[in-house]
């Protein structure tokens, strides 16, 4: 565990900023969890095994929480539509993780061995497909074509973002804008969709739909940038992800983009050797961390995250104050505070 | 090319049985093809490249043809719903192929090098996800919740079938019923869904929906069984699939199920060594073919296919005679005649 640095007076534990929101949607989240459990069921034994390995491994379920909260913010009270869409969003996320692990050849996920190591790449690809299918079935049950439109578009954009990343991967010349386009698509789009379907279900005006979407989008970008920082940072051990995974996989993330641009020719040579050509030697991760520190790349990535966090907050301005809005604003703190 | 054995008087070329149907839906298929082309577009260059590599490689597009024909059979004339659903069905099929090649570690597909060899497993997984996302977007545009329900359920069932196959794979004890459950799910379900959405769009009664579904399901089973035969048969070269692929991959298909049950202890030992343990030596494929011949396993698999073909025909009995119905009946001939 790294040292926790408070970023706002009175807040020292990042998880604390999430507590209000978690408490607020706790009852509906129980129904989401029951729904997730029942919808991973299949007579084909391997499917619930693989699905629940990942689902039960204690993600924060931030995305379905956001769906419930956004619906609540917009006064949605009618039935179980939000619960089913929240479960759909978590299934889409889980499917992405299963496929990502195959694509990235990852061995670990959330501090446990990745499903693909335990059951093989085949099972990870196919159970991902199964969960995506189940996600759509639940959406269809809810019956909102507009919500279906938003979430199916998100599924496409996420895949596009992953392919973009594949193309941009190992290219140290990637610009900040290009990198942002990737994470908007592969991470932030699902946050945006998760939030947008709330007001859609509640049949609120377009302006509120756009506000919730914008909140989710900017929160998602901040979230990913902080993840990038964590991958080189002290606190990451608590995520169960080894420090330096991105480095070893040759992933170009914003800290690298910044350090590469700000660096010397010699440093650029270092990034090209380690990230583009994958020639990583003992001591290279320490050397990478030293370069990142020298150029304040991690601090400035966190600064960028703060910027998107501020946009997320502003997006909610049009909603009247209240406990849900206040809890959603605190989630922004949570996302940023994780960086420290 | 193998020797073509006519199974009905006056028909010697299997492709000929498909001509009427192809001609019947030709105009709408042009729109489906345009739709497919436009919906594989993406600013991320690799996506259209990978998608079109497979899509342009000359599959028969049997599934979208069936969607158009079933809609036509049921008198659907209103707008482009059937065209979009047909394109969705083809996208679902293409996504499955991309993922299958990764799962099966195949090198070839439709006589061309598999996308995963050219662009990697990562791209195949992700472009498959992209196409699945696009398929759902098109369905959403059509706006029929019932069609969405049918096709999203099919997506789930297909993935389930693939996982079932993964579990059953290399198990020579697989029973005929178990094997049928696999191919119902992984192959026939999409044929069934492709046909069922036709009468759904045309808002025809449940009985017609069920009839079209049954036609598609049984045709799909027959189609897969004949594929299994082709994998051990002379005519397969024209499919661009090497004879013996299933054997080398240790796939348990119906010919094997039949030969295993009918065989001697020594023969069972042979199947266990080659298929379960994957210890394949020079001459084993010839030995396998000899055993299959000895037990009439390929002929009897074709007989089973004929049985499902007959059910497919009977399913259409409630529709009045006409050119579309007649063309759909001929497709059954086409599927069976391929075996020879």
From TrEMBL, chains A, B:
- Name the PANTHER family for this protein: ALL TRANS-POLYPRENYL-DIPHOSPHATE SYNTHASE PDSS1, GERANYLGERANYL PYROPHOSPHATE SYNTHASE
Q: SUPFAM superfamilies, from UniProt?
A: Terpenoid synthases
Tell whether Metal-binding is among the UniProt keywords.
yes
**UniProt keyword list:** Magnesium, Metal-binding, Transferase
Gene that produces this protein: ispB
Q: Write the lineage as a comma-separated list.
A: Bacteria, Pseudomonadati, Pseudomonadota, Alphaproteobacteria, Hyphomicrobiales
Protein name, UniProt field: Octaprenyl diphosphate synthase
Family membership = Belongs to the FPP/GGPP synthase family.
Q: One Pfam annotation, family name? A: polyprenyl_synt
Which superkingdom heads the taxonomic lineage of this protein's source? Bacteria
Q: Which cofactor(s) does the record list?
A: Mg(2+)
């Amino acid at each position: 565990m790294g040292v926790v640095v408070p970023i706002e007076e009175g807040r020292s534990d990042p998880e604390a900023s999430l507590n209000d929101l978690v408490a607020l949607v706790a009852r509906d989240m129980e129904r989401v969890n029951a729904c997730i459990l029942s919808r991973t069921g299949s007579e084909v034994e391997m499917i619930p095994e693989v699905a629940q390995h990942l689902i039960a491994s204690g993600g924060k379920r931030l995305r379905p929480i956001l769906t419930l909260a956004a619906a609540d913010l917009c006064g949605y009270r009618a039935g179980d539509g939000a619960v089913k869409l929240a479960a759909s969003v978590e299934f889409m996320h889980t499917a992405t993780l299963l496929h990502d692990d195959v694509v990235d050849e990852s061995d670990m996920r959330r501090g446990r061995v990745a499903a693909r190591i335990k059951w093989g790449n085949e099972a990870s690809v196919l159970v991902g497909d199964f969960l995506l299918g189940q996600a759509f079935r639940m959406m269809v049950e809810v019956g909102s074509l507009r919500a279906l439109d938003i979430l199916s578009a998100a599924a496409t954009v996420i895949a596009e973002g992953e392919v973009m990343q594949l193309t941009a991967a190992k290219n140290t010349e990637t610009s900040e804008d290009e990198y942002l386009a990737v994470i908007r698509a592969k991470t932030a789009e699902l946050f945006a969709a998760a939030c947008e379907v709330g007001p859609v279900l509640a049949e609120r005006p377009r302006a509120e739909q756009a506000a919730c979407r914008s909140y989710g989008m900017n929160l998602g970008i901040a979230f990913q940038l902080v993840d990038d920082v964590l991958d080189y940072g002290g606190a990451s051990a608590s995520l169960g992800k080894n420090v330096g995974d991105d480095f070893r996989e040759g992933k170009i993330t914003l800290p690298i983009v910044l350090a590469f641009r700000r660096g010397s020719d010699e440093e650029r040579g270092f990034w090209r050797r380690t990230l583009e050509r994958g020639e990583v030697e003992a001591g290279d991760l320490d050397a990478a961390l030293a370069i990142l520190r020298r150029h304040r790349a991690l601090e400035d990535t966190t600064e960028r995250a703060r910027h998107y966090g501020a946009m997320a907050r502003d997006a909610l301005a049009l909603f009247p104050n209240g406990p849900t809005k206040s809890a959603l604003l605190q989630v922004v703190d949570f996302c940023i505070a994780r960086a420290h």
